[in-house]
Fold each of these.
Amino acid sequence: MPLRLRSCLSLLLLLSSCATSAPSPSVLVPRSRRLANLQRAATLPWSDEGRCVVKEASQPWPVMVEQCFHVLDRERIRFQDPTGRCAMASTGAVVVGIGICILAAPEIVVGAVIITGAVVVAVVIKEALDAYELRRGHSEQAKPVFQTGSSLKEPVVERSPKPESSGQDGPPTMPPVSLEQERRPDCTPRPVPHLGGDALHNRCADRVPRNGFPGSDVLVNGKRFDALQAGERVLWEVKTDNFDTFSVYLQRIVPGKQVAELRRERALALSCGFDFRVGVRSAEHKDALEVEAPELEGIIVVMEWC
């Protein structure tokens, strides 16, 4: 990809991150990046019924655009550059570059994308969006009821010192944690339905060794983690990117975006008394993350089971 286009996409990726990092206060539960990308992609014509979009929807929007641009139905779509920010030298291959640049923008400028005919939502994208609606309905029905102050006192009474075990009792489900952490309802792991329609991601998460909640995500401290090793008190985040197939440009910018997210997730886990691990599919991906964040060395694992 030409250097100038890469610079343009890098800037647009930063703008996209800024544009989506502060949801409206009126929204109680912020939309996931995956859902937002699926809804935005549903307005465009795709020649592969949306398979690439569904596969890459967890990526930042500009990254997803670059990965899936080749399956846009370009016989039905034209690009114009009214702002001039994507203008490049006029060659035959540049149309692709301008198209990626325009689509990767945080907000598409009116008149920049012209589509002929009505757009019917691609079948695979529609299935993924329908799955979100189903999961949201189940999630609302299973929404936890927060206990009142009086009801929270009961577990505290039961935590009074007990006689030493004779050694015949079974091991506790989890090692003990501080009283302050146990008093926080948001630190209690709760199984919730998997987010997203990524079957590979869900399978790799479910197969984490000694996973206490296979078939579910685990809600802790307001964050959906991919797996929980209950006995060891370890929360997991799983990354199933085909990192080795990424372009040089993506291999440079994706680790930085992922590391920022992993640092936040690790802090949430540690504040509730859990350790944190990250599973990836290749040694190259592991090395790239550790170069970006040396403090994560030792907690990133290549998933032999995935």
Amino acid sequence: MRILITNDDGINAPGLKILDAIANELAGPSGEVWTVAPAFEQSGVGHCISYTHPTMIAQMGPRRFAAEGSPADCVLAGVHDVFKETLPDLVLSGVNRGNNSAENTLYSGTIGAAMEAALQGLPAIAMSQYYGPQNNELENPFEASAAYGVQVVRKILAADPKDQDGYRLFYNVNFPPVPAADVKGTVVAPQGKRADTRFSVEPHNAPSGRRFLWVRGGDQRAPADPGSDADRNLAGYISVTPMRADLTAHDALSNLKDAFE
């Protein structure tokens, strides 16, 4: 198996080392793991691509490349420049430092990379590690991801439909904010929404007098929709959410059509 890995925390992020270990176990001794990751942190860029300016790419070592672009740029670079004629069998994105459950999914560059891989027709899985009081101070905060990543990916790949028309499925996996020994299991869950949690900005004045705004996230431990990804993560479960790039609100189509007839 040939696997392409990327992330949004940057090529030197500790979560990418965890993902590299997961990918190498999945690929096996006869497989290959290739890295194309952002040269610098790209958290929060979503599915952004560098459409109006070029992306510099540099080889950092055997099968290891850094691109000055977004995670989706890295997938494009991997598929169309690094791999060229022989495509990877799987694209893995992560392991993100922090969760990409609930509303975070919409901003995540980790998710953006998996989405781009799916748009390229490739199996893709995004993985993120929830942080919280129970794992923040661990020697390895990614302990749950490292312990369960391989088996979760294998089960997803076994269930992934082989023939898919239209927008291909990709998968969002979030590991709970607990030590590996305290993980209660794995559940398939829909994307949720944390109650009254939104991104915001906090203004600061620089010594020069110029005004700057820092983006702030909401409370990551706020209650979420029962049974949803964030809800299950906070209860100690790994969540797996199947996704597509189709943003159509299919449940609203009929009512909206009626309004125009």
Amino acid sequence: MDIAALDSAQVLRENLLKWICFCFGILASVFTYFNLFINDFYSLGILEGVFAIYCFYTFNYARTRKFQTWQPLLLCLCIMLLVILGTYLAVVKSGLFVWTFTLPVLFYLLLGCKRGFYLSLLLVCVQTVVLMNKASLAPFPELNLYLNMSFSYLSIWVIAHIFEASRAQFSERLENLALFDPLTNTGNRLAMNHYFEVELVDKINLFIMVLDLDYFKKVNDEFGHDVGDQVLVEIATILRETLNKGRAFRTGGEEFALFIPDSNQQESYQIAENIRVGLQSTAINVGEREISLTVSIGLAAYRDGDSLKQAIKAADEQLYYAKEHGRNNVSFDSQQYSAKLEQVS
């Protein structure tokens, strides 16, 4: 599964921002020409011309680079300001106020529920003040105009809010299904990949721990897989409680990988020891049974430029060493860590 697919809302909004800018750039250019050379409405024409230039700039920016979080907000604010000023400057019969009804949909698509709600609320409040202070609403009867605008705007606003809230909820549920191990509720391999490649921006002083439960097959053989599954759930709970920072992932069977960012040799080794000692001294109660387990742990420091596969391989090598030397211990290559420090310096 592609990592980018996990952030589908972000990808959708990037594409929307790009093509909305392109479409609005063309529309604003047409209106600029229309207002400057046909209507002689210079103030509005100049504003629309500036907006068209901004739209084409943002479109070109979005084609080549990842957009910044403030860009869709700025675009929405610019469009809202243009519609409000157009409604204020133009006579009502020009129909420019009709663009008001399109904006809630745009706000929710580009900004999500929270900011979409607040911008939609701000827009309706300001537009109401602008229309109430117009000298004339001709050729529309005032009461009819206010009622139709109010009901139309509220209907579009409610539909946009419900749609975006439902989309966000289902997107979160799908993401959870894709990222979490259904048994232990820890991250899975895909979540680990996403964490390493996307979420973990600063990998300096990152330590990777791979741990494997010693002789776990005996638990499954003696008590059955249902009991084994319950043991894994308890193990995952212990790992989350012991790990005061970073993330834990189940990478398969009885094997887990832990990432400890912003750490050092002593701290990461102590966390590994706390996990080892904690599991060794904890009797896991499953029904009437008490099951005691030990764990072998391989610990490695992230080396600058390593891929996730290389980083995990380094910790796996230490895990293999721990198993070869009696199990129930923590193996860490201090020479590798020293080499890493020399490389950084």
Amino acid sequence: MATSYGALCTDFYVNTKLAVKMDMPSERETVLHFFDRVSKSLPTMNRFRRYDGELALESSRAEQEYRWLALRQHGLRTGHVNPESLEASAEFHKLMLEIAPFHLTLSALDVDYLEVLFGFDLECEQDHDEVVFEALLADSKLGNLVKLGGGEHAAKVLDVQPVFGLSLSEGGETQAYYEVKTRPRSRRGKASRNGEPISLFLTVRRYGPIESLEELSHWYSELAATCDTLCSERLVPDLLNPITRAITAA
């Protein structure tokens, strides 16, 4: 069974991003040695893919639970979709933070920031923006902005994707962001989502400097714990549950 968060949505995932100041190595031998090392530790991660601007290693997406990593110019991203537990997800992400610096010749001086993201996908066949508007904004001052009259030519919401950012430390080095992501429409407002979900993201980020690369594992633990607390105390009751109720009622 997946985490308790998985019971609240279609898919739940934990992602990380290690952002660096200099370009990541892109030489064929370096990348292949790194991906081969990961694949030996996690044999299911055996699909090597090239996407726009990144090289990726993945496990099979045919399975409900899968892992991936992506090497981009200025960072390494990793993801664990529908993990059995937050502990299992932490084990994966910490392993990547342990392996990557050695094989990619990273330095503590090079670390810009580390972030952990908890993501929730909600299946929704209705108009995403109208659902989010009704759930979060309809009875607020912001909601009054789109109440421009009734009748045949009444205003219709086209884009409702709130983002909230806050500092969690006095110096601003630790930050959190809540985001609601609806799927794109055509330029004239016609839905073109092809069954894609509404996504809710909580990202907690910590900026460097960092004294040693061994601290990254500790940073991950702190950021993931903060994500867990903010999700259970804020995101689930104040974002996810209202949107879920609006989907059900629509």
